[in-house]
Glycoside-hydrolase family GH114 TIM-barrel domain-containing protein (Nonomuraea solani), 283 residues
Amino acid sequence: MRLPVFVSVLLAAAFLAPAPARAEVKAAALPAPVACNGCWKPALNTSWDWQLISLPKKPYVNVQMFDIDGFAAADGVIVKSLKADKPGRRVVCYISAGSYEDWRPDAGRFPASALGKQLDDWEGERWLDIRQHTGRLGDIMKARLDMCKAAGFDAVEPDNVDGYTNDTGFPLTAADQLAYNAWFANEAHKRGMSVGLKNDVEQIPQLLPYYDFAVNEECWEHSECTTAQNGKYGYDQFVKAGKAVFQVEYNLATSTFCGKSNAQNFNSLKKTYDLDSYRVACR
């Protein structure tokens, strides 16, 4: 989901942190990427749909990939049905990796110390202290990945993995986010699933070796899709590495972004915020 950025919180945290702690963060090295040689690697041009408010219904739209809610599909029935409908179709498991959702069946497992501020406009959802991923929070996320694997999903889309740019209630740093996002990608690969980087556009250069594709919301509306727009980061870096970009706009007319997306070799859609069955593909 697209959320407002609170850069002042990040800057305040950086200046108020004690010097030794800042030195430790700078010195911390990311783990080596875990190889996933047998994982699905989507082609640059891959047709897709993204439905989260409910599961897809027959007749299914003729696309090569569906991205759907992992908990709603945990029994594996819809995953099998989608694959049987179109041989070679892949299915991506949506889970939130950076927020607590009070309606999920594992909500009672989250430690109170890991729950931060509520996400704007998302009732019942709170930011997580991702620094706790070495403890119980990490165990919860591993269990969610195990759920995706058991249901037959090919890949994972972890949402809300850019908390450090938001007002989470925790002094999260860019280094904290990199450590968590790299850890999460490695855990997905250990289970034989590919993984997509959701938003977090500023950290693309560092996270590109860990992620197999990208999922983005509204980068054209916010003028942050390409390295030419941003200076140091952009989704064209995924394409250059041979990794697919799945991109959605909600407010823009297709006439204003489809031509640009096609020129960049992005797989762009016009969707509603509900992420229902409405879909207009750019190609």
Observations:
- The first strand starts at residue 48 and ends at 51.
- The two ends are 23 Å apart (CA to CA).
- The CA atoms of residues 50 and 67 lie 5 Å apart.
